[in-house]
Amino acid sequence: MIKLDNVNLVYDIDKEVQTYALKNINLTIGDNRLVGIMGPSGSGKSSLLYLMAGLKKATSGKIVYNNTEIIVSKRANGGELRLKEFGFIFQRHFLIEYMTVLQNVLTPINSYSKEDINKALGLLEELNIEHLAKKKPSQLSGGQRQRVAIARALINDPKVIFADELTASLDHKSAKEVMKVLSKYKNKSLIIVVTHDPSILEDADEIINILDGEITGVEEVRGEVI
């Protein structure tokens, strides 16, 4: 579970005019579900994701993951959580260019055991790119690179998967196929997806709407609107 208690993210805090990227965020997200964060460009949805993932530091307020406050610093628990508990899929793929597809997928676990190689190949097969296992990122299309990034995020069986506009480089058909694969994991992981495209959230359990840095509504898709 992730809980945000009166969280603010302010830019230019030392200047006369300050900009609130996020303002007075109070939010609780439960375990093992698919949650969408929706909003227009510049609404603060990616900033919200990065705070929950420990990739940004809040200006004020508290962010708690499973009863542990996330502290963002070089020596604090954020790095350990990201390594052991979290998986990430970004709009930019951040693949390592000199590694093969298979090697990129195995990077988070730093293991080339037969079991882990077979697991990675299984993920690539689910994403319909197992035939690219020996290719380098420069030999792939943007959509193929994104599928590799998704497999890499899943290899460590993360308890939370953070995805920021993961389908932006995919056509509509491929985007829906990728989301179908990802949604299979919501029974054992909390999956949080930032997107501007509501059509990819048809399997979501909850949708958080955000505008101008403030949450405007939380919709339980399989229940009532809060």
From TrEMBL:
It comes from the Bacteria. Residues 2-225 form the ABC transporter domain. Gene3D superfamilies: P-loop containing nucleotide triphosphate hydrolases (3.40.50.300). InterPro entries: AAA+_ATPase, ABC_transporter-like_ATP-bd, ABC_transporter-like_CS, ABC_transpr_LolD-like, MacB-like_ATP-bd, P-loop_NTPase. The keyword Transmembrane helix does not apply. SMART domains: AAA. Keywords: ATP-binding, Hydrolase, Lipoprotein, Nucleotide-binding, Transport. It is an enzyme of class 3 (hydrolase). GO terms for cellular component: plasma membrane. Pfam families: ABC_tran (PF00005). Signal peptide: none annotated. Its EC number is 3.6.3.-. One of its GO terms (molecular function) is ATP hydrolysis activity. This is Lipoprotein-releasing system ATP-binding protein LolD.
